[in-house]
Amino acid sequence: MTGARRSTLAAALLAGKGFDAVSTVVVLSLSDSVREAVPLSRALMAAFGPVGGMVVLTVLTLVAFGLLAEAGVLVERRWPDETPDWYAPTLRAGVYLGPAVWFALVGVRNFTHLL
After folding, report:
1. Which terminal Cβ of the chain has fewer Cβ within 10 Å, N or C?
2. Angstrom distances, CA of residue 82 to CA of 72, 76, 87, 92, 107
3. What is the pLDDT of residues 32-87, one digit of tens each?
4. Of residues 100, 90, 85, the one with CA closest to residue 69
């Protein structure tokens, strides 16, 4: 798989998580009746402020999912005869795109708190 394909998948994850992060900061700043439900997000936002906390969380998310997405390459190298050719690229696409869609949906749900 080319670096361009990997970067496209990572960009999709960044877009989804970025939308979630922006929606979280916006909703928390505009509504007093809403609070962050995820303990890690709350801790990071308390330590670094709302924007800084979301930036740190976004970077951690990209690193964690990036490592998980590339785990298919390790499996492929460890067991080359037993691993189908499609395994690593399919795992990579699923690991990047699944959470990207999830985070985008969470971002949409966050904005519904303002309605």
Report:
1. C
2. 13, 8, 10, 18, 39
3. 888 888 899 999 999 999 999 999 999 999 999 999 999 999 999 999 999 999 99
4. 90
Amino acid at 114: L
Quick one: CA dihedral 17, 18, 24, 27, positive or negative? negative
DSSP string of the chain, one letter each residue: --HHHHHHHHHHHHHHHHHHHHHHHHHHHH-TT-----HHHHHHHHHHHHHHHHHHHHHHHHHHHHHHHTHHHHHHHHSTTTS-TTHHHHHHHHHHHHHHHHHHHHHHHHHHTT-
pTM of the model: 0.89
Paired tokens of 52 = 């800084």
